[in-house]
Amino acid sequence: MDPIQPPSKTRRKKEMHALQALGTALVGLSPQQLERMDLPEALHEAVLEAQRIRGHEARRRQLQYIGRLMRNIDAEPIAAQLAHVQGESAAAKAEFHAVERWRARLLEDDTALGEWLATHPGCDAQMLRQLIRNARREAAEGKPPRASRALFRLLREAERV
User: Using H for helix, E for strand and C for coil, what is the string for the chain?
Assistant: First the structure.
């Protein structure tokens, strides 16, 4: 009968590196995203401090400190919250790119307007036509894309409804 063996040094080091990598991901979040996460106070302060540090060696030591703090807490809920926050960012990027593709289609193809209005019946068709016309004219004349930006904002709002 074998007694339960403690984890090997290699396994402990891998776990510590994983916690430090999780801490590095936390440092990469924006302050708004950090506020939404349920972090212990000491960890939250250490992450904010790491975001302020610019020196390479000082930042490395701060990241090690964050990893050390994370050894004393359950990291699973933090990892789950981080995955959720990063998923929101990925979803926001996907939404942004989808609206960009629609704007490009509307500016290139007249039939795309009918498709857009069929899928978004609440959208202001007259305003949409005017913005498309103005954006095409601006592009042809080499003017700043003011109407194109307004068109993007209108499409984004229509997508969110």
Answer: CCCCCCCCHHHHHHHHHHHHHHHHHHHCCCHHHHHHCCCCHHHHHHHHHHHHCCCHHHHHHHHHHHHHHHHCCCHHHHHHHHHHHHHHHHHHHHHHHHHHHHHHHHHHCCHHHHHHHHHCCCCCHHHHHHHHHHHHHHHHHCCCCHHHHHHHHHHHHHHHC
Whole-number pLDDT of residue 48: 94
Superfamily of domain 9-73: PSPTO4464-like domains (1.10.60.30)
* Fold type of domain 89-160: Diphtheria Toxin Repressor; domain 2 (1.10.60)
Phi and psi for 54 in degrees, rounded to 5?
-110, -25
The whole-number pLDDT of residue 160 equals: 80
The rounded distance, in Å, linking the Cα atoms of 145 and 155 is 15
Q: Are 131 and 147 in contact (CB under 8 A)?
A: yes
Length of the chain: 161
Model confidence over 134-150: pLDDT tens digits? 999 999 999 999 999 99
Which amino acid makes up residue 123? C
Count Cβ atoms below 10 Å from residue 22 Cβ, excluding itself.
16
